[in-house]
Design a protein that fits this description.
- The protein is about 80% helix and about 0% strand.
- The chain is an all-alpha fold.
- The protein has one domain.
- Helix 1 runs antiparallel to helix 2 and helix 3 crosses helix 4.
- The structure holds flavin-adenine dinucleotide.
Length: about 70
């Protein structure tokens, strides 16, 4: 998660909105709600982490090294 863009906070809020919506849609039956929640939100979470700027910088060969040196300084 890239903290400056509030991605973690945004993802958590989206999770809460989706969970609340599914709970209303399925009358709070968790056996239906939880698998549906995972089907939607795990994919979203992977997309955020795969496309996130911090992951790109951190795991890039040279940018990752530069990031670590800058952080140390
Ligand atoms: C060091 C650090 C810095 C960060 N900085 C930022 C930032 O600057 N900006 C930003 O947007 N995001 C930031 N993040 C990411 C952000 O904190 C998370 O993405 C966000 O808190 C996720 O919210 P969540 O509600 O999904 O999960 P969490 O906040 O992890 O909440 C899950 C809760 O469930 C509880 N729990 C777990 N298992 C059980 C169980 N079996 N029974 C009952 N309770 C359980 C846990 O104790 C926890 O309280 C940072 C994260 C870290 C670690």
């Amino acid at each position: 998660m890239f903290s400056l863009m509030g991605q973690g906070c945004s993802a958590a809020i989206q999770d809460a909105v989706v969970l609340e919506s599914l709970l209303r849609q399925h009358g709070e039956q968790l056996s239906l709600v939880l698998p549906e929640f995972s089907a939607q939100q795990v994919e979203e979470g992977h997309a955020v982490s795969d496309l996130g700027l911090i992951a790109f910088v951190f795991y890039h060969r040279w940018l990752g090294l530069l990031y670590k040196i800058t952080t140390l300084l």
